Structure formats: C-alpha cells, structure tokens
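Please decode residue identities from the backbone states below.
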C-alpha cells in the first residue's frame, strides 16, 4: 500500500541514525582498545597474531598447537592479510597492532547492525535504537570485541548467520537459507564448540521445510569442505584442525591440563562479573524475550550448557552467546515498552515520552526537520509491529507459516 511505503526522507533519517550508532559503537571500542590496553587471554597472541606475523614477516613464536598441526590457519591467515596491509603504511608496532584492532572492531559492528534490524522490524526506528543501543554499549562487547580471538570473530559471524536464518518478520527463501548455512559453517569452523547451538538455530529456522534444510546444508557443506581443503594444504590432512582438536582436548583431556572449573561456573560467573542485580535482570529479560523469540533464547542457553559440560572453562568461551543475549534483552525491552504503551494507551504514539525523545534526538543530530522526518520513518514500522503482535498483519508482512516459531 502507498501509505506503508517509507519515504526517501524517512529512509535517509534511518540510515543517519544507524550510521551514528555504528560510529558511536566503533569509537567506544577503539577507545577502550587504545587507551585501556589489556589482554583477554594469551591465545590472541600465540594462536592468532604470532602465526600471522610469521606468515608476513618470517618470524614469530610457534605454539604447540601449530607444532602438532592442530590449529586451522583460517583466522591467522586473515589476520596475516590485515598485518600485510598495515605494513604498507609503516613497520612500527602500531602499524601491526592497530590494523588488527580496527579489523576486529569493524567485524564487531555486525552484531550492532543485526540487533538494529531486529529491533527496527519490531518497532521501527525506536526499536532499532533500543536493540542496537543495547548491543553497541554492552560492557563485555566494548571490552572484548577488539581482541583477535576465535571466540570473538565466531560471535560476529554467528550473529550474521542468525540474521540470515531468522529475519523476524518474514520467512527466508532458499537463497537466504543457503547464505545462513554458509555463515553457520564458517562459525563452526572458527569455533567447534558452537556446533550444538548452530543445530538449535537451524532447527528453529528450517522447521519442517525440506527445501530450507537442503539450502542450509548445501551452504554449510561448501564452507566446511573448503576449510577441510585448507587443512589438507596447510596441515597435511583434511579436517585435521577438527578431528585432532576433538581427540586431544576431549578424548585425551589436554585442555584440562590448563585448569578445570565446576559445571556451575557459567551460572556464577555472570554474578561475579556483572553483579547480582544486573545478572538477575538479564535472566528476567532472557525469559521475557525467550517467550516471543525462542530461537535466540535457545541458542544462548545451548552455548551456556555446552560450555558448562567442558571441564576447562574461561569467560571468553561464552562470548559468542553475549551478542544474541544482549540483542534479546533489547527486544524484550521493546516488548515491555509496547506493553506499557498499550496499557497506558490514552496518549498517541507521537506524544509518548519515547516518541518525544526520538524526535529530540533526530532534531539534535540532523537539524530542525529531522524530528518531523523521523515521525514519518516510525509510522510504517510501527504499523507493521502492531499488525504482527496484535493479530492484524499489514501488507508485505507475514504472521503465519514456517517462521511462526520465531515471531509468534
């Protein structure tokens, strides 16, 4: 319908606000990395940066995992490319470290953009600001995202895959499911322990649709086969980084030599890191959001459970669960705001405090006409949100079908 079309002015304001949010997220991440230098875990040096440095400059410490040919060269190879680009501008330490940090920060903007899109589909620009803002400003994401760890890059790829498989307001077609499968396959290659969570996401996304399963499996198989070929070329045997990793760390218990923690650690750690009240609030948001979006909740819970079953534990191991968890908290907050508006519902949306704040933000960022443009930008998505969650679907949106396990 013509009335549901987003005007060019409204589209520009949406892009402007999303761009501002991404710039804010990137700026904070770079500032933390540069002015609060820290190391999350030694693996970022010995498993990623040192091998990459050796590829580019011919020197670097060789960790035992590379001596026994257990570690894939996929991620270190990408970082080697980043180091090579940095070397074009100089040979000092900053020209080696800063490009790696900037690359990781750019990748960390993917979860922010995904959370924005989910929130926007739920409640227009206001929803995008809420869900995207949660992901842009969450302390763990600010503190860890710039570090070249396989857990971190896997989290970024996982969020892209979740968005491709679970777009929220529509049933993805075969091409999109193939892309989701490829991203899930890449996530698996980067972090094997995420396999059960990827299976949960695939079950929610594909349901009982054979074509969706076929497309997703095809996309995943292509990427995993490519990773196996890379292992064959660089390590001497296909899929060596997968089967040898499982054999040494699971069957032989090598990882346990670096310390073990009880299965309850990941239940207690959030309280230790965040505090009791914030951790309780996050659990509450997980339950609230999980009722409407069980796929995201299922992925988060599966990651926590999977890592809890492994004796060797580190906080970074559950980092891939944090972007979908934080995004889910933002989506839950949007649902709560919508419930309050419905319960209080005497005032029109344009007169609500949230609407005034959005208009004020638009005026401050884009000039005096931004507030008016934003009101037009909000309307179509708000109408879509009302249709999806009140029983009336507007033109161009879907309420029922194979995706109902995610949106209904």
């Amino acid at each position: 319908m013509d009335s549901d079309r987003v005007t060019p002015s409204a589209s520009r304001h949406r892009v402007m606000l999303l761009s501002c949010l991404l710039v804010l997220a990137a700026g904070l991440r770079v500032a933390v990395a540069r002015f609060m230098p820290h190391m999350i875990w030694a693996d970022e040096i010995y498993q990623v940066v040192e091998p990459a440095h050796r590829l580019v400059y011919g020197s670097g410490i060789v960790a035992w995992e590379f001596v026994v040919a257990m570690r894939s060269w996929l991620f270190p190879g990408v970082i080697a490319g980043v180091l090579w680009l940095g070397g074009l501008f100089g040979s000092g330490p900053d020209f080696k470290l800063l490009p790696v940090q900037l690359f990781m920060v750019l990748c960390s903007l993917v979860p922010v953009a995904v959370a924005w899109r989910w929130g926007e589909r739920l409640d227009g620009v206001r929803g995008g600001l809420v869900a995207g803002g949660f992901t842009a400003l969450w302390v763990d994401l600010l503190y860890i995202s710039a570090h070249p760890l396989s857990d971190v890059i896997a989290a970024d790829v996982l969020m892209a895959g979740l968005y491709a498989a679970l777009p929220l307001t529509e049933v993805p077609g075969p091409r999109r499911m193939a892309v989701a499968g490829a991203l899930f396959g890449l996530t698996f290659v980067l972090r094997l322990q995420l396999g059960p969570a990827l299976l949960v996401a695939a079950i929610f996304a594909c349901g009982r649709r054979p074509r969706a399963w076929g497309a997703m499996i095809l996309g995943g198989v292509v990427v995993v086969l490519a990773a196996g070929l890379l292992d064959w070329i660089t390590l001497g045997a296909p899929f060596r980084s997968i089967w040898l990793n499982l054999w040494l760390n699971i069957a032989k218990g090598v990882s346990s030599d670096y310390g073990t923690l009880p299965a309850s650690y990941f239940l207690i750690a959030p309280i230790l890191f965040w505090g009791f009240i914030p951790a309780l609030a996050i659990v509450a948001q997980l339950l609230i959001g999980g009722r409407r979006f069980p796929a995201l909740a299922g992925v988060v819970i599966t990651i926590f459970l999977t890592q809890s079953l492994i004796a060797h534990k580190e906080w970074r191991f559950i980092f891939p669960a944090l972007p979908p968890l934080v995004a889910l908290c933002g989506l839950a907050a949007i649902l709560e705001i919508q419930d309050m508006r419905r319960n209080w519902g005497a005032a029109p949306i344009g007169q609500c405090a949230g609407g005034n704040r959005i208009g004020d933000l638009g005026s401050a960022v884009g000039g005096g006409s931004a507030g008016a443009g934003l009101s037009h930008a909000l309307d179509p998505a708000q109408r879509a949100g009302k249709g999806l969650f009140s029983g009336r679907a507007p033109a161009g949106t879907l309420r029922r079908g194979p995706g109902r396990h995610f949106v209904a």
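Observation: Residues 93-137 form the longest helix (45 residues).
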